[in-house]
Each structure stands twice: as C-alpha cells, then as structure tokens.
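thread: overnight batch results

M.L. [08:02]
morning all. the overnight job finished for the chain we discussed friday. pasting input first so we're all looking at the same thing
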Amino acid sequence: MPRVLSSEDVEAFRRRLCDAAEGLFAERGIEAVTMRELAQALGVSPMTPYRYFKDKDAILAAVRTAAFARFAARLETAMAVPADPLHRSRNAGQAYVDFALAEPLAYRLMFDLNQPTEGDYPELQAAIVRARRTMTVHVEAMIAAGLLDGDAELIGHLFWSVLHGMLMLQLTGKLSPAIDPARLRALALTTLVRGLGIAAP
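M.L. [08:03]
and the structure it wrote out:
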C-alpha cells in the first residue's frame, strides 16, 4: 500500500524538483529541463514528477515565481531602511547586484528565459509585477523629493537596463579580465546619475 504523503512531503518534493530544474538549466541549458531528465536526476520513475506538476512549464513557473518573490523582497527590504531617497535608491541597486551574484541561476531564469506560457500562471504574473514595481518606486521617491524630474517608469527601466546588462556580461564571463565589475558598475551608475541631473540631498 503506497505511503500517504503529507502536505510537507509534497512541498519538499516540489522544492527538490525545482532545485533539479535549476541545476539542469545551469549544466545544459533550458532544453535539458524535461520531465524525464528531472526524474532521472532525482532517481524516481519518469511519471513521478507529473504527480506534483502538470509539466515542465509549471515547474519553471514555480522556480521563477519563487525567485521573483525573493528578489522583490530583497529590494523592498533595502528600500525600507531609513535614509534619504537617493541613498534608498543606492541601497536598492546594491540589493539588486547582491541578489544576482548570490543566486545567478535564479537570476538568469528570471530574466534570461522567455517562457511563452507565463500568462497561464497568475502567481508568476503577480511576482513579476511585484519585482517590476521595485524598479520604479525608488525613482518616484526621488522625484517626490525634488531630486529628479522625469518619467519614473522610463528612468526606472533605464537603471534596470544598465544594471542588467552589466550583470549578464559578468555572469556569462563576457567581461574582459582587465575589467573590475564593481568599478564598472560604479562608473556606469555615477555617469547615469550625473546625466540625469540628480541633485544630492
């Protein structure tokens, strides 16, 4: 008689599937993330993963939902530290970098994966919206404080684009060995701040 799984057992195995999906993505790319490969990686029968997720898209959506939630929470915490708007913006930028470097696989799955079925997963959509909100809220605070003038959404995406581009070059090993990634980020963001005419408080 098969053992009855508790909700904790189910959640634990779902997490193992998600971890295995991240690992396969890192080793061999998204094409390697199949239900059969996941089952083999966990040493279970080919049908076992289907008892926990509908298909591989559902697993990827779960992985990305959790990653976006962790990412958003990290930035929200950084921006909640009492400080003037400019320093909260800097805190958010540092939290962004820290997350990407601490969890490079999750970061790449979040932003580097085109998942056509995203719209089928409301929790993933909500997590993406929450994360995207962190890209503009710090800019809105600077505008409200009179430190900056412009479209918060556009400027937030400008900061995001610059950070993301540099981080992806770093994470994929495309930067020249002579380039210090931290110095590159500092130079880029300082130049961007000056170009936007952000006034120091």
